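Re: export button greyed out
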Amino acid sequence: MTEELISQYIDDALDFDDKIVFVERIHDSERYKDDTVELLTQEKALRAAAWDYVPEVVFPQKANKALWMRRPLAVAASALAAAALMFFFFWPPVSIEPPDRKVAHRFVVFEPDVETVAIIGTFNNWQVLPMIKTGREGYWEISLELAPGEHRYSFLLDDSRRMADPTVHIREKDDFGSENSVLEVRT
Amino acid sequence: MEPFRRFYQQYRESFFAYLVRFTGDCDLAGEIMQESFTRYLESYGHLPPEPRLLYAIGRNAALDAFRLKRKRCMALLREETPDPESDQEKRLMVKQTYQCMQRALLQLSSGERDVLSLVASGDLNYREIGEMIGITEANVKVRVHRARVKLKNLMKKEQHDGRTHQPVYR
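Workaround output, generated via the alternate export path:
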């Protein structure tokens, strides 16, 4: 089994006990030392830059500049004309439809062994929203105003690990192996 | 955007190197790198940088490509004559000195090449690799060492055979 210590040595994955065993084997066995040097040399070659150049990734450009930025005068004139038309046709002013009524939703998760918990989801365009630790038991919570409809979300633990909401049974896997909870908000 | 730019600069070369080792195909590696970084930016660009996700996306894309057989990962083993019409300067070519290594890599089993390519990237530890490919950390230790020893023997055979053909990397 100590043969595998050579690879762990190459990959900086030895703990202290393993290091002791490894060093002892190196001193005891010429063959073991030669194998180690051979595999180290091979790994150096394997990791060497083997290509003349690395292609650059072309990232999709953001949407073209808005029309008003490209042709401000034309757009301003059109807007003025439209406003004048609206004024004459719809005076007195028409009532404006109220926006969709939002619904308050409280997210709670029990995670006593982490430093931070945040929530990310479709409702905030996957931006990180820190949750607040409540009490000393390890509960974290946040209340959000959500539009009616279906939302996907997950919790972000210690800024690194994603976790679906354990209290919500409907889940959906994304393309990258992460799992999101699915929440339907009704008015 | 700035953190993502730094992330891109930090992992661009090692990630490309990983993809070439795993697929044995420089052009395919370039395509997968383009797709992977773009998808990473779309889905995770706003989160703290996480190379594991980038590698998971790239590995999945490579496995998809193998499955669909759009490109054959064993292209290296085919004897082909370079196309004189192609633009040699722009070609993605593996350096001559590395070609023996790449041929040997492609004779490993896909599982051995998978784990060895990930380890050689230097961006992931055994635990992360185990989680990514669905085996235990102890299994990663065993598999990576076996792969290295097998690669060593294959390299010796390659050198002994004195093969002189220069395959084209498509």
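Chain A has a mean pLDDT of 81. The button fix ships in the next patch.
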